[in-house]
Amino acid sequence: MNIKDVADRSGLPAKTIRYYEEIGLIRPLRAANGYRSFRESDLHKLTFLSRARSLGFSIEDCRTLLALYEDRARASADVKAVANAHLARIAEKIAELRAMEAALRHLVGACAGDARPDCPILAGLETGLPQTGQTGSGGTR
Amino acid sequence: MNIKDVADRSGLPAKTIRYYEEIGLIRPLRAANGYRSFRESDLHKLTFLSRARSLGFSIEDCRTLLALYEDRARASADVKAVANAHLARIAEKIAELRAMEAALRHLVGACAGDARPDCPILAGLETGLPQTGQTGSGGTR
DNA sequence: CTTGACCTTCCCGTGACTGGAAGCCCTATA
DNA sequence: TATAGGGCTTCCAGTCACGGGAAGGTCAAG
Fold this sequence. Notes:
Chain A is an all-alpha fold. Chain A contains 6 helices and 2 strands. In chain A, α3 packs across α4 (59-70).
């Protein structure tokens, strides 16, 4: 198979496949004309990589997972450990984003969004964020 | 003020402050010896930037927000629009991460995590993800 | 023999910095 | 006065995971 074939079948752009070769994730053969020649096993790996990446695993995680994938003597515990570490990172990111979302939503909720210049969003960015709002109806400042 | 002072007071690394000057977010004065000389207004801007960045606004968003911050004739609606667009991006990212989390949690839940090589996580990455599990008790492969 | 699709390598750009090298400036102390 | 230290400067390279595009080789069809 040429690169376009495996690109179409794995769902990865040809550019990405070349990159994966460059960083040593795959090692396709070469035809006499210099073209990459992909085996079924290469296609399997690329599909694997495509899916692992879509779950947010880093390239280094993918390298590890791919090694485990190819190691018939692996322990599923090793795979699970990588996955759990990644789950933890995902949870962390979600928590960060939710904190941002809450703080920003709070500011947005306080902003009239009209033609006047008074803006609690800018005020919040100026003076230090959420502080549980409650600027008071009298609004100091 | 020298760069270290504004770094300490704004919470931004000196490197970042130099970078922000390079991309035109701030324009500190220069002393005779070539050192950057920061005014109070520069410090305000840096603090503003630090907070906006911590809410996840992109540098380009920050540029826009900073311009609005400095424009006394601004309409709060313009600020709110930027903030709402960012809120939408945050919500989108959270949704993506949650989808990853759900898919991965599903796989992890099915994995024994012991010394044996059989691993539903690797199987899931190989064959195409969630498919509501149910590999059948006979377990092909 | 030309067209057009495919393939190759190489280099630059992305976002938002971070690290480090090489070298100037300033203050304090011996 | 010499020196040690800390701070400041610029510039270059690296990060992560690619994507865009140039310049040029290859192949099958008409």
